Every structure is written in structure tokens, then in C-alpha cells.
Amino acid sequence: GGGGPIVVTRGLTKQYGRVVAVRDVDLDVGAGDRYGLLGPNGSGKTTLVRMLLGLVFATSGRIEVMGRPIPRRTGEVLPLVGAMVEGPGAYGHLSGRANLALLDASGPGRGSRRTRRRRVDEALERVGLGGVDDRPVKAYSLGMRQRLGLAAALLHAPRLLILDEPTNGLDPRGIREVRDLLRALNEDGTTILLCSHLLGEVEELCTRVGVMDRGRLVLQRDMADVRAPTGRVEVRTPDA
Ligand code: ATP
């Protein structure tokens, strides 16, 4: 990473009974990174990011987000963090705008009705939902829902955006749009931490990569150090 630390964990561990979902993880996300947390299903990515958000409490270890320790026992989501993780989702019978307005009203944001209205409009505009908004969310495509989730995460101009599989279920065009949006947000100064099980996605999008395997962070590097100068290294396996 280039800038100062934004997310730091040391010895972070989460156990569910006998299952160790996350084991002794030392994560380092720097300011301005597009950090890709890579790993197969069940490797612990979701549990890890949910701990960063205070949605799941660690069994042991420590977490600092933007210089502030995340308390282990009292859930607290920092206002400067935006997140798109699997959750309760939106109200299907309401429009995207109405959903965001509800969220905004219950969030840390302030301002007059006009300020709030503008904040919601800008978030919708930013993800390309400005025009289609009057439809109820249940009429949205999966891609539109994904983008609505992103708009919700962007409402309060977070410095850190945490996303769990942001392109899951999207068609190629939707995938391209979400990736372009994430790059643009990052260029405007937002640090991005995303989970993915797709090596290609992390290669294309990310500046830094962490690889999870059975709860452990087994590799953490800048992408530039992972890529060989001539691209991918050819690996030959002996003939069977
Ligand atoms: P996915 O892509 O499927 O979300 P993941 O890499 O995010 O996978 P986790 O969902 O964090 O992995 O799961 C890691 C391990 O912890 C798995 O073995 C899972 O079964 C277990 N686990 C996760 N949440 C719980 C829970 N609430 N109770 C018990 N076990 C859990």
C-alpha cells in the first residue's frame, strides 16, 4: 500500500464452537489501496470483513480501522466506513430513492430536507440509477439491486468502502460497470476492500491482494509484486 494504514488486524481470530473461521490474521490495508481479499467459499473472507464492521465479534486479536480500535464486544460501525455485505436488503415495494431516504434518515448524516434529498440523488446518480428510480425495488434486476447496495454504501462519502463479492450475479456489462465505478471512487480517494473468489477480478481491479485459505491469510502482497514483469508466470506440471 502507498498511504498510511487504514485497516490493521493483529492475531485476529474467530471461532464458532470447534470451527475456526478466521485464524490469526494480520491484515494491512493502506490508504488508497484497492485491496482484494481472495479465497474460495468458506475460507473466512465474510467472517473477516464482518468483524471489521463490528457485525461479528472476534474471539481474540485486535482490529484498528482508521486508527481507531474496534471494540471486541460492543458493535460499532464507524461513520467513515461504507459497506455492502449480505444483509436484510431493501424494501421491495419501495423505490430505490425511498429506500435510500429511509437509510439516510436512520444514519449519521445531517442536514435540511433539501441536503438529504441531494445526498440521496447524488448516490443514485453515481451508480447509474438516477433515471430508473421510480420503479419499486422488486422490479429491479439483480445488477440494479447490486448498484443500489453500492449507493447505500456511498451515502455518506465513506473513506473506506468494504464490499463482499460486489459483482456476484451480474452479467458482463454489470460487472464492467461496477468495476469502473470502484476504480473511479478509488481515484477520488476512497480506499476499497473487497472480497472475491475470482482471481481474474482481483488481478484486473486490485492494487493489493490477500489470499485466505481455511481461515488463514496465507499471502499478502502488492499486485505489482505478484505479477511477473512479463505477466503471468507459466507453470508446467509434469506429465501425468
Ligand atoms: P463464502 O464465500 O461462502 O461467504 P467465506 O470465505 O466468506 O465464504 P465464511 O462465510 O467466513 O467464509 O466462513 C468460514 C467458515 O466459518 C466456514 O467453515 C463456515 O461454515 C463457518 N461459519 C461462518 N459463519 C458461521 C456461523 N455463524 N456459525 C458457525 N459457523 C460459521
TrEMBL record:
What name does the UniProt record give this protein? ABC transporter ATP-binding protein
> Keywords for this entry?
ATP-binding, Nucleotide-binding, Transport
Source organism, top-level taxon? Bacteria
State the coiled-coil residue ranges: none
Domain named ABC transporter is located at 7-239
GO MF annotations, alphabetized: ATP binding
State the family it belongs to: Belongs to the ABC transporter superfamily.
The answer to whether keyword Ion transport applies is no
